[in-house]
């Protein structure tokens, strides 16, 4: 079980909620639903994110979606450098004004998915960098892929995501999905804590969770990445079906062609994709690659 944090909501004049409302009024701003904007207004959660990042003065942090800059200021106190990437033009302008006194913070007004991490860092990463992000649901998977697949990968990622997405990212065999495998191929995820909806303003309709993703020096299994994920995607083509049927459908093969390959990989054809470990997927990919060589 992961503990819920943030129930002791502070409603005093100096609370994060009060600060957030004042800042929004001052700059004549409203949360934009289209960008999935929900501002964190709980100090306990804020502290949990910063603690999970384990920052030191030698760290470079890339913050995605800094919003009103409350977390940015906390990160800047601990890290050597913070590169905050904000898509919203008005929020970026606000950040440049309110954080102007912090000389170790750089505000970039752009879509993080359009900037290669190595270009974002401008050779500032040293021994690696860390990513901190409060991610809207609709860009969670693209952002994770963007950094985990990059040539300059982070050492760790601390992300706030929807609770169900966090559980999918950290799932074990039996509940695996394409998202689980896409993350766990590169890194070890761990749910730090669950965060109730009321810790945000405006409150979203669902609870969230803080997930720490520690990136491996090299992927968990030694495979050809493109071919490996082609097999995994095929396996999840019809996840409710037995693996033999789902793979046949996903690869455009007859079931009779797939069955001997599963047998060679030591995987029962009636299993379902969500039950396989990453190592089993790697073994299956190797058998399929061997089959291709035999066909040539």
Draw up the topology in text.
Elements: H1 16-26, E1 39-40, H2 43-53, E2 60-64, H3 70-78, E3 81-86, H4 89-98, E4 105-109, H5 117-121, E5 130-134, H6 140-148, E6 156-162, H7 163-169, H8 178-184, E7 187-195, E8 200-201, E9 208-215, H9 225-235, H10 243-251, H11 255-265, H12 278-295
Helix pairs in contact: 9-10, 9-12, 10-11, 11-12
Mean pLDDT: 88
* Proportion in β-strands: 15-25%
Shape assignment: elongated
Helix fraction, binned, reads 25-40%
Using only C-alpha atoms, the radius of gyration works out to 22 Å
Order of helices and strands: HEHEHEHEHEHEHHEEEHHHH
| Helix count, DSSP H or I runs of 4 or more residues | 12
How many extended strands? 9
Quaternary organisation of the protein chains: single chain
- Give the uncertain stretches in residue-range form: none
Strand numbers in spatial order across the main sheet: 4-3-2-5-6-9-7
Structural class: alpha/beta
Largest sheet: 7 strands, mixed
């Amino acid at each position: 079980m992961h503990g819920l944090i943030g129930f002791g909501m502070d409603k005093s004049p100096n609370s994060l909620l009060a600060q957030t409302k004042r800042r929004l009024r001052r700059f004549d701003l409203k949360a934009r639903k289209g960008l999935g904007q929900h501002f964190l207004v709980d100090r306990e959660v804020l502290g949990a994110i910063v603690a999970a990042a384990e920052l030191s003065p030698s760290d470079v942090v890339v913050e995605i979606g800094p919003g009103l800059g409350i977390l940015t200021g906390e990160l800047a106190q601990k890290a050597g450098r913070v590169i905050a990437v904000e898509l919203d033009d008005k929020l970026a302008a606000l950040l440049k004004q309110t954080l102007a006194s912090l000389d170790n913070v750089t505000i970039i007004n752009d879509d993080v998915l359009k900037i290669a991490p190595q270009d974002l860092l401008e050779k500032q990463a040293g021994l690696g960098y860390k990513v901190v992000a409060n991610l809207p649901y609709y860009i969670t998977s693209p952002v994770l892929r963007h950094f985990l697949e990059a040539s300059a990968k982070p050492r760790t990622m601390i992300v706030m995501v929807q609770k169900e997405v966090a559980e999918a990212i950290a799932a074990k065999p039996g509940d695996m999905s394409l998202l689980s495998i896409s993350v766990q191929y590169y890194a070890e995820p761990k749910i730090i804590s669950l965060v109730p909806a009321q810790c945000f303003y405006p409150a979203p309709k669902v609870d969230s969770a803080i997930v720490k993703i520690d990136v491996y020096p090299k992927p968990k299994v030694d495979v050809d990445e493109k071919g490996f994920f082609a097999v995994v995607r095929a396996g999840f083509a019809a996840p409710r079906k037995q693996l033999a049927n789902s793979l046949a459908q996903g690869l455009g093969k007859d079931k009779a062609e797939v069955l001997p390959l599963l047998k060679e990989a030591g995987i029962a054809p009636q299993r379902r994709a969500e039950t396989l470990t990453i190592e089993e997927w790697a073994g299956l990919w190797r058998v399929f690659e061997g089959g291709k060589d035999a066909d040539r």
